[in-house]
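Data card: per-record layout.
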Amino acid sequence: MATRALAGIVLAVGLGTATPAQAQKVTFVRTATVEGREITIDNTKARIAIDVVDEFVDEPEQAQYARRLFRTYEEAYQAAQQQGFEFLPSVSLVAAKGKKFDDGMYAAVELAAERPFGSKLKLGKRELLQRVLQALIDRHGKLSGYPQGACAEAVRYVASALAVGGQLTGFSFPGPPLNPNVGRKPVGFYTWSPELANIFRRDTALQKRLNLDDEQETAAAAVLADVIHGEPELEQERQLLLDLYARLTNPLRSMEVSDMVAEIAAAGGLEKAIGDEAAATAFAEQLRSKHQLGLALLPPSESKEMFLLWEAGAMGISSMEAFIDAIRSGKIDLKPDRDSGWYEYQQYALEPLLKPDKMPEGRKLELSDKYKELLAEAFKSMMAQVRETHVKQLELTEAAAPPLLEVTVFPYLAVEPIASTYLRIGDGYEFLRGVLRNKLGPEALTQLHARDEGAVERPQPLGEELSNLQELMYGAYCLALRDVGAPLKELPSKWSEERAGDAARRSMARAEQWLSAWAQDDDMRRDVRMMIPVARSPDVFWAVIGVKMTKLHVRFVDCPEVRLARGEGEVQPMFGDVDYWVPTERFIEVQGEGEPLNREEFRALCDRAQTEDRIIKALSRRGLSAPQSATTGPGAQGLVAHARRGRVTWAYLVGAAILLFVLVGIAIVVVAKGILGRTRR
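The structure for this 681-residue chain is written out next.
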């Protein structure tokens, strides 16, 4: 009897039966029809091995395909179709669908927050900042002496930011000339429109913390805090905006206005705290003894990796490799906590790419070292894409027996089987829904629309897009579990045990529908190439230079059970291997001095250079070069990272210095005794 190949003849998806109390033990089976007879393929006892194919003997077309860089996933897919290659949607491909929404959603929130919105924001950020500036100007006229000079410095701080943001009109203010060099060059989606670019420049200028080591800046911070505290409407509006960014991205790093106000009160009031230069110096010393950070009007968000990225750059080694090492070793724990923002939920979703063996689906997979390296490469590019979204806010049968049915079963993968990443992305979107609803009001989900490049509104409101993306991610999660035969033990955050089976069927159908036609999705035609700064002095940049295809060889280690779906009969299965081509975004890191290239500039450079080697050479001509590996470079053993918020690892460095000092001292004593002994003889 003819053998039937079942790599992709999946006609239906079944769920193992379970009572509501057993919903977390739901299992998935595939159903297919061979010669008019229905069979099921149960992977519960199966294990799948995945390896990377990187040698193409007598296969020049495949070798050429593997070397190409594509601008988009859709381009890579069309090339695979032309060659007749089996194309497997990767983790990064599915996540790329969300990336377009992520940028558009953040752009929509940035634009909405500029003006009064819904039941929460009464002023909007633009009017808030302009009113703060006017209040400072008014206060300046009521002060004299040193406090007046401090107020002029506070005016300069706010006015300079509004000026670079194109929002300084109608003001007559005192003090020194404005600083035209504040703020940072817009990158990411902030280049989509002039308004977004101005928001980026203005807000990054106001993320600068007024320095506690500078008495005049400290005095200016005291005046600024006193003015905001004296205007309850301004203080409330500012806190609403800060709470929004703290949950949309991550917790903020700055002295609180309330802390500065308390210190002013303890000093006997503003006039006594900064009444003259000597008083201001003493006040600054008092603040430094109790606080590590100065005050910023619009503070930046911290991240668990921020000090590690800086330390790696300072040592001239790869910050990304150092980050990965810290995650794998447990020095950085990506699991969100009660203070986490959406950014940490997004990071947590990527952790399974670095620890696939420790995920629930890991026991069903046997992954080669080369494939694990490929997953780590996917982590790098996806991490860079996630960070780009937050780039502004982040501190960088009959009785008769039937004939024997022979069938060959191949490992079938609907998506790259790192299930936990899809689950965590979906749960991150649920967290984001709560942030938007609680911080901007329910209107944010029904009235706001994500933006496309050019800041053009997308047709669906944010709430609808969030629901669709969650269905896709949860569906991909269930498909990945089905394909490796893992049970649905961990439920998505918005699913109940009683209705888990129904929710899984619905989400899987939604995901399969999208996966069958993803190449026609406009979002998937997005150019993935980008470059962002992640640390300063030395400057460290992360970049994605395009999409590359990698060939995977997939086989069964432990084979699945294959049986007739109903009736009597016998199935004689044979098992084969299958090759898939999987797309991943190519990540590079460079270090040096200079401004980052925005999307348009970087893509033009990539278009001219075309290949990875030429792109790296083109960047080197701009003074940017690849760092040493974090695991082999000088000082790698001294690189320490941990997940405590806001703590620099200098204690470890000081300890290493003390140990070195002791060792040198011992060596000197030994040498001295030797010399003395020879002298006596």
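Known properties of this structure: The longest strand covers residues 539-558. The radius of gyration is 29 Å.

See the next section for split statistics.
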